[in-house]
């Protein structure tokens, strides 16, 4: 293995824990999102969004879109290439498909977040679990429901590879993905500063078949500061 490859692996594996100095009492929004439900909200440039894993190991599947041009969206490829690693944590800048900075992770008490595993869907429920699981509620369904209700021009063609905050998805030496037990816990959070006006689309994952969350989806908390 080359020196460069070793450096990339070190970057990919690094946990960068950073607590926040922001006070929840002065947040302009403090919202508890029920287990298994979607949420779509605007975050303005310069605002900070905190996503809190209230009970531990609850995946928050998240997508970002340019508030003024929804064709510009979060790009997992651009983000990973620019940071030289596959995991997201403190210091990671999230880039768009147009190579523009969308948000920066400014605080993180979990230390590892996934952007490879994708969102659960009818198809993945079938492949990973069983044929009879196909019609169980999924993050893809959540995304589509939120898009339809918001009526802002988003539809299924805008569903792209997402971020799974609080999920631990290692890559094996053979290049396979493993959905391992999480490294999060009650009260762990990730905090993002918006570098442009964005739509934030979250599916608070409803997955009932994955032991990573003890087969028990739980609520998350969402805070925004000016």
Query: What is the typical, i.e. mean, pLDDT?
Result: 87
Shape: globular
Cα Rg: 17 Å
Q: Quaternary arrangement of the chains shown? A: single chain
Percent of residues in helices: 10-25%
The fraction of residues in strands falls at 25-35%
How many β-strand stretches?
13
Structural class: alpha+beta
Topology pattern, helix = H, strand = E: HEEEEEHEEEEHHEEEE
Spatial strand sequence of the major β-sheet:
1-13-3-11-8-7
Question: Whole-Å distance between the termini?
Answer: 46 Å
Continuous helix count: 4
Q: Let me know the largest β-sheet.
A: 6 strands, antiparallel
Low-confidence stretches: 1-12
Description:
The chain has 226 residues and is of the alpha+beta class. It is built from four helices and 13 strands. The strands form three sheets. It has a six-stranded antiparallel beta sheet. Strands 2, 4, 5, 10 and 12 form a five-stranded antiparallel beta sheet that branches. Strand 4 and strand 5 form a beta hairpin. The radius of gyration is 17 Å and the shape is globular. The relative contact order is 0.31. The N terminus is likely disordered.
Looking at this protein, list some descriptive labels.
30% strand, globular, alpha+beta, six-stranded antiparallel beta sheet, Urea carboxylase, disordered N terminus, 226 residues, 13 strands
Summarize the structure.
This protein is of the alpha+beta class and 226 residues long. The chain has 4 helices and 13 strands.
